[in-house]
């Protein structure tokens, strides 16, 4: 990693952001560092995958709020095809769900767009050298999340789920079917199926059985 058209010691960088002025300004800053050369830019998740296949970047700076497929899904697909590429998220989204989803997708860094140039370049060097990095604000949130997991009740084991989704997952773990859950919660069967679909997506499972296993491993369902 690091070899390429920019010289043997330069990391090849792909920038993905749907705001051209931000992207161009970031490109100018990154290119000023002798350790990097910007080899491509993309405005969406789909275009990021296309450009990455063409330029084979070492590092990708990825926004999350993209048109088309999300930045999270773009990271997941990118690393499936190019597992050696390292991704740093740069976004305005500082909520727990996006932070955890980006980590699960394989991001090696998570910065907020308020980060100063020196912090961005330092993060790219760290990730390029095999490290993991978070901005100070994100690191504090991450520490708080991990602290909350330790000894947390089972219902908090899935922080990306809404309260209703956790309730539905718990009922699934209890062995209830969709119609029974709908009856218990006084909602339509379709509403339950929508919740279950969201649960599958957030837990990255493909079926009800896998979701139940995850739930019971976290302490939900029959003792």
From TrEMBL:
The modification 4-aspartylphosphate is found at residue 63. It comes from the Bacteria. SMART domains: HTH_LUXR, REC. InterPro entries: CheY-like_superfamily, NreC/VraR/RcsB-like_REC, Sig_transdc_resp-reg_C-effctor, Sig_transdc_resp-reg_receiver, Tscrpt_reg_LuxR_C, WalR-like. GO terms for biological process: phosphorelay signal transduction system; regulation of DNA-templated transcription. Keywords: DNA-binding, Phosphoprotein. Residues 12-128 form the Response regulatory domain. Residues 154-219 form the HTH luxR-type domain. One of its GO terms (molecular function) is DNA binding. Signal peptide: none annotated. The keyword DNA-binding applies. CDD domains: LuxR_C_like, REC_NarL-like. This is DNA-binding response regulator. It comes from Streptomyces dioscori. The lineage of its organism: Bacteria, Bacillati, Actinomycetota, Actinomycetes, Kitasatosporales.
